[in-house]
Amino acid sequence: MKQFFKKWGLGARLKKMSEWAADALFPPDIKCIVCESELKMDTRYGVCPQCEIVRNSKFCTVCGNGIRDMAPVCDHCKTITHEYQMARGAVIYGENARTLVRKYKFGAAKYLADYLTEYVADCYFENQFEIDCLTYVPIHHTKHKQRGYNQAQILASNLSSKIDKTVLGTLAKTAQPKDTARLGGKQRAEAVRGVFSLVESSREQIKNKRILLVDDVYTTGATADECSRVLKLGGVKSVSVLTFATSMAQKPLLS
């Protein structure tokens, strides 16, 4: 039998076939989008078991920030009124989610948008948004020139095709404030005040419409509130917010 296989080269052929089948089932070039280790198989989210992204399953019913207690509204939202109707984030902005966002925004990893959109789309359907169209948080033209793309715009465009809703460019960022990452909630709100403007050509399209504002990350809500304020001044009926990641709820942000 061994001679038969050897004569006709069947042993080598069978080995090649088994290798081909293994590669088909477990492609060697598919890597975890977080740690970049080889995945045993392709997954919808592109994440290995060790790099699981924490889903945002327990959240404030207003801002969508993750909460640890049983209260339906976080302490911060009890003290203020937001410009938007409600906000939701698909995952908690922990270490792995932060790694993805940094790669996506600053590492030229546009391909990550396809995976991030899967999380965002799931969050959209789970929360039963009632909207007419989508828009996105704009970035300043200097940032756009440096990066080559607006990460929020790509997420909105991807989501648009999944939910069959039109995405519109409704906002422009006319000023670039200094880095707001280390600012408190009140300071951040002051820093972004007036930096967004309505794109006049979209005014008729958004009049009396329910808009979904898409972004990559929700932290204090300052950007979402300011964009929502401008949209409402432009005639929008209501604004909801949807992001890939959101923070854990904090105590009332007084500074």
Report on the architecture of this protein.
The structure is a single chain. With 255 residues, this protein is an alpha/beta fold. The chain is built from nine helices and seven strands, in the order H-H-E-H-H-E-H-H-E-E-H-E-H-E-H-E. It has a five-stranded parallel beta sheet with strand order 1-7-6-2-3. The longest helix is centred in the first third of the chain and has 16 residues, at 10-25. Mean pLDDT is 87; it is low at 18-28.
Question: Quick recap of the structure?
Answer:
This protein has 255 residues and is of the alpha/beta class. It has 9 helices and 7 strands, in the order ααβααβααββαβαβαβ.
Properties at a glance:
single chain; two-stranded antiparallel sheet; alpha/beta; 255 residues; Rossmann fold; 2 domains
The total of beta strands comes to: 7
Strand order of the largest sheet: 1-7-6-2-3
Radius of gyration: 23 Å
Range of helix content:
25-40%
Tally the structural domains: 2
The CATH class of the largest domain: Alpha Beta
CATH topology name of the largest domain, in short, is Rossmann fold
- Indicate the low-confidence ranges by residue numbers: 18-28
